[in-house]
Specification:
single chain, Cytidine Deaminase, domain 2, 6 strands, 27% helix, globular, binds tetrahydrodeoxyuridine
């Protein structure tokens, strides 16, 4: 896990983070008033975004990361190499990076298994003045994957 300046990111990492920042403006978060944007980078450099989508039955909320993963899957994109996540409150900017919730870490772990790589995770404050680059294995040590329950998912790998 390392802190990195925005300028040190690659052009593609910057693009993903910028698109995540733009898409968080479409977040549907009337309850928490906390807006999250996520942007996946596929193996071929395609960027797929997602936002959180809340519900009056609070527990049905879908996080930005999972929204992006499901969207990529529907687009036929299975191989994900990286995800950028950024957030802001209705009335405040984040001063620390927003880490994916436990459920999203588990879903990203599955994505990493399908992708056959340790998915990079880029986390940023609203103003991009604090950025952490880490990976799903670092965020979810000893994660449970298909191999662990004897599942062969090779037909889903691109
Ligand atoms: N949320 C995300 O979308 N991703 C995260 O990484 C953290 C939390 C959303 C869920 C909920 O809509 C709001 O942020 C507050 O938890």
């Amino acid at each position: 896990m390392k802190y990195i300046n925005y300028q040190e990111l690659s052009e593609l990492q910057k693009k993903a983070l910028d698109e995540a920042a733009n898409v968080l403006e479409n977040s549907y978060a009337p309850y928490s008033k906390f807006h999250v944007g996520a942007a996946l980078i596929s193996a071929d450099g395609t960027i797929i975004t997602g936002t959180n989508f809340e519900n009056a039955a609070y527990s049905l909320t879908v996080c930005a990361e999972r929204a992006a993963v499901v969207r990529a899957n529907a687009m036929g994109i299975k191989k994900i190499r990286s995800i950028a996540v950024i957030a802001r409150g209705d009335t405040f900017d984040t001063v620390e990076v927003t880490g994916p919730c436990g459920d999203c870490r588990q879903v990203l772990y599955e994505t990493s298994q399908i992708s056959n790589c340790d998915t990079e995770v880029i986390l940023s404050t609203t103003k991009k003045d604090k950025i952490i680059v880490t990976s799903i294995k670092e965020l979810l040590p000893l994660g449970l994957g298909p191999d662990d329950i004897g599942m062969d998912i090779s037909r889903y790998r691109q």
